[in-house]
Amino acid sequence: MIFQLIFWLSTLALLHTYVIYPFFVRILALRMNDNDIIFELNDELPEISIIMAVHNEEKIIEKKIESVFKSGYPLEKLNFYIGSDASDDSTDQIIKKLATLFPSIKFEPFQERVGKARIINKLADSSKDEVLIFTDAHAIFEKDSIINLVKHFKNPEIRVVGGRMQNSKEILGNIAILELGYFEIEYKVKHAESRLWGCMMGAFGSFFAIRRNFWFPVPANFFGDDFYISIKAIEKGGKAIFEPNAVVSENVPGSMNEEFKRKSRIATGNFQNLRVLYRILFSQRLGLAFSFFSHKVLRWFGPVFIILGMTSLSLIFYKNLTYTILFIIMLLSLIAIIIDFFLKKIQIHIVLLRFISHFFYMNLALLNGMFRYIKGVKSNVWEPTKRN
């Protein structure tokens, strides 16, 4: 009975976070409206600071900076703070050159690797503007992307606004397609959360804005800076919302190895965030607590539920026909991973097999990040994700 209980609880947890919760929040949000208290074209827009930490981004940094100043936001109301984490390529030289063309660039090169959190903390503390926008070098701003993000801050209840990413390449690898599919589902869930309760569960880290008064410095050696910043701002009130028309273009990594490293790093940050934000699970804001538990905490522990579910099913599969069928399905899914591995070697891609492989591989990355957190994080110095 114990193993049966473990199996069904583990299965329910996985179904809830991946299927049940995303489905029902989207259904419930259909009749809800987006925020309509926004800055119009003729309104006086707030002054903003764009905050960005970079390391060895010589291939993309010029395009990134130019996209900011071509995005349509009034240049006299825009300050661009850039911190270089001891870049040893030509990134610093390119930024210095562009700073002569765009005086609103405030550039600070760091001589030693200090990590993203320390850089954005220092840059954000230097800013006195009403709105802070956090972004990454590979997120290229689209026309009106900043305006669509900032317009919501006319509503005093709103503290955080998250944007979205679209892939910058027409030709996608199979991993990129799966990642984009995952992102699209995530965006729809975040949009539903913001409509229902004003508690979008973490902004897309490459492009989001926060009201300056609700900025909290990121703890030392944190990897999950975007989630910490956006959730900390609404922990005791206010709203975090998703704006689907605030778009940046970014090339999704096509390599499974790069995705594994990226998701492992994110997973480490997940548990760092859980350590300091766990009280949200007991918040009087029921929508916030429910979203945090359903959308994030259960998913972060997904690898544990998979291990428990598979182990318990292996011990009870002979009990009845239902368990036997489920056990066979489990074995077939594991065999599918092996088949997909060899098919990939000969450039044969079957979507169903790749989906199964991707699901297990990314949960393995979550498990790796969990172990890294347990071992202790001494530094959050990072290497930019390699992109095709």
Care to describe what's here?
With 388 residues, the chain is an alpha/beta fold. It has a domain at 33-262: Spore Coat Polysaccharide Biosynthesis Protein SpsA, Chain A (Alpha-Beta Complex). The chain is 51% helix and 14% strand. It has 12 helices and 8 strands. An 8-stranded mixed β-sheet has the order 3-2-1-4-7-6-8-5, sandwiched between helices. Strand 1 (48-54), helix 2 (61-69) and strand 2 (78-85) form a beta-alpha-beta unit. Helix 7 packs parallel to helix 8 (256-277) and helix 8 packs across helix 12. The radius of gyration is 22 Å and the shape is globular. It starts with a helix and ends in a 13-residue tail after the last helix. The mean pLDDT is 90.
The unreliable regions are: none
H/E element sequence: HEHEHEHEEHEHEHEHHHHH
Number of strands: 8
Calculate Rg over CA atoms.
Answer: 22 Å
| CATH level 1 name of the domain at 33-262 | Alpha Beta
Strand percentage: 5-15%
In the CATH hierarchy, what is the architecture of the domain at 33-262 at level 2? Alpha-Beta Complex
Q: CATH superfamily membership of the domain at 33-262, which one? A: Spore Coat Polysaccharide Biosynthesis Protein SpsA, Chain A
Oligomer: single chain
Number of helices: 12
Q: In the CATH scheme, what's the topology name of the domain at 33-262?
A: Spore Coat Polysaccharide Biosynthesis Protein SpsA, Chain A
The computed structural class is alpha/beta
Instruction: Determine the fraction of residues in helical runs and give it as a percent range.
Output: 40-55%
